[in-house]
């Protein structure tokens, strides 16, 4: 189980003001998130999200990057209340050669030999996976008072940019108090996130398709 606090910036353009009140990030990464569905809709019925994340570490202000791991994540939401999201999560690494073959259309992601893909076939009855959306997120990881803050700047395919702070923790209220205090000093308004990135992305994708 993964438990995360998610607080969104009411005005994403104020992200720099929030960052100015935080310690220097220990890492800045660009996350290329590829989301998959199945033609029969069984993932939607089971409320399971399938994502492959290709991450690149940003090494310099000029934007130079270095490739990091490629990770398959399966996530099923269990609850969300007050900006606190609890989800069942499974993940494993995807070999770069296999991912290149998936992107080129030479193989299906289900050809990955892993417990996660076996679970998709056996527990969810998925027989095929198709990529249906891509989203890019820049994440800054900041250590503060015993918490790791993940400060996200998300660019959706329609050009919308959103910003939020995520904290994976068993002490959601302690994290909330800390993040809200930082935001208060920065003069930045935060609100509880009501939906995950994937849900917000799919609303935009469906809206674009009419």
What count of helical segments does DSSP give? 6
Secondary-structure element string? EHEHEEEHHEEEHEH
Give the CA-CA distance, first to last residue.
35 Å
The helix content, as a percent range, equals 25-40%
Low-confidence stretches: none
Large-scale geometry: globular
Largest sheet: 8 strands, antiparallel, barrel
Give the C-alpha Rg: 18 Å
User: How many strands appear in the DSSP assignment?
Assistant: 9
Quickly give the structural class.
alpha+beta
Estimated share of beta-strand residues? 35-45%
Mean pLDDT metric: 94
State the strand order across the main sheet: 1-5-4-3-2-6-7-8
What can you see in these coordinates?
This protein has 210 residues and is of the alpha+beta class. It is built from six helices and nine strands, in the order βαβαβββααβββαβα. It has an eight-stranded antiparallel beta barrel. Strand 4 and strand 5 (84-93) form a beta hairpin. The longest helix has 15 residues, at 172-186. The chain is globular and about 50 Å long. The two termini are 35 Å apart.
At a glance:
The protein has 210 residues and is α+β, with helices and mostly antiparallel strands.
């Amino acid at each position: 189980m993964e438990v995360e606090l998610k607080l969104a910036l009411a005005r994403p353009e104020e992200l720099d003001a929030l960052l100015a009140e935080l310690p220097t990030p220990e890492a800045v990464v660009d996350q290329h998130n590829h989301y998959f569905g199945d033609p029969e809709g069984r993932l939607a019925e089971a409320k399971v999200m399938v994502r492959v994340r290709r991450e690149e570490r940003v090494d310099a202000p000029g934007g130079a990057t270095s490739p990091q791991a490629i990770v398959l994540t399966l996530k099923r939401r269990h609850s969300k209340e007050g900006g606190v999201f609890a989800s069942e999560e499974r993940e494993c690494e995807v070999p770069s050669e296999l991912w290149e073959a998936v992107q080129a259309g030479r193989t299906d992601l289900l050809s990955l030999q892993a417990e996660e893909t076996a679970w998709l076939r056996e527990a969810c009855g998925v027989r095929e996976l198709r990529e249906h959306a891509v989203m890019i997120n820049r994440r800054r990881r900041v250590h503060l008072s015993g918490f790791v803050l993940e400060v996200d700047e998300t660019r959706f395919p329609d050009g919308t940019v959103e910003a939020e702070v995520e904290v994976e923790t068993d002490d959601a209220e302690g994290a909330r108090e800390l993040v809200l205090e930082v935001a208060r000093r920065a003069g930045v308004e935060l609100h509880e996130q009501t939906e995950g990135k994937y849900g917000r992305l799919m609303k935009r994708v469906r809206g674009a398709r009419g």
